[in-house]
Amino acid sequence: MTPPSPSTSGSSKGSKAAAKAEEAAVKQAAQVAAASARPSSKKITTSSTAEYFSKNLQQVGFSSQTKAVLTTLKEAVDNALDACEDHGILPEVKVTVEKAGAGSLKNTDQIRIRVEDNGPGIEAEDAPKVFGEYLASSKFGRGRCSRGQQGIGISAATTWAQLTSATGAKVTTKTKRMRKALSATIEVDIKHNQGVVKSREMIDWNKEHGTTVEFLIDGRIQLNGEAGLLSYLNGTALVNPHLTLHYKVPELEWHTVERVTKELPEVPEATEPHPHTMKLGEFIAHSHLFGRIKVKDWLKRGFSRMNEGSLKDLHGAGIKNALLEKSVDAANEADFKALFMAIQNIQLMAPSTKSVLTIGEEALAKSIKRLGSVDFFAVVTRKPTICDFKPVEVEVAVARLEDRSIEADAPVQLLRFANRVPLQFDKSACAIAQAITSVNWRAYGLGQPKESMPQGPYIIAVSVVSPFIKFKNASKETIDASDELVEEIRRALIQAGQKLSKHIRKEEKANELEEKIRHIEQFGPILVEGLARISKASDARKLRAEEGLRKILGRDARATEQELKKASERLENQIAKDASVDASAEEEEDHESD
Amino acid sequence: MASLQQELPRMSRELCSRLLADLEKAKRPILYATKCSLDNANYNHKVGYLTPGSKKVATELNVSSVKKMSRAIFMLEILLSRIETGQVNTKRELYYIAKGYTKGDARMKALDFGDQDESDSTIDFICELMECYREDFNCYANDRGGQTYSQQLIVEETMPDGDKAVIELAKLGTAAFQPKNRPQSLKLKLKKKVDFCLIVESEGTANTLVTNGFTRRHDCILIGAQGVPSNAVRGWCKLIEDQLDVPMYFFGDLDAYTMQNIYRTLKAGSAASLIRNSDYSAPNVRFLGVLPEDIKKYDLLDYPVKENDAQEVRALKKAADALKNDPFFHDRRNKGVTQILKWLLEHKRRCEQQAYFTVDPRDPTMPEKIIIEKIKRGDYV
Question: Strands, E, within A78-174: which ranges?
Answer without folding.
Answer: 92-102, 109-117, 169-174
